[in-house]
Amino acid sequence: MIIGDTVHRKMVFHQRVKEFPIPFKKRIRSLSYSDPEKRIIKGVAAIDNDFSHASANITEGGVGYSYVTVRMKSQRHHPLNFEVEIYV
Question: The whole model's pTM is what?
Answer without folding.
Answer: 0.88
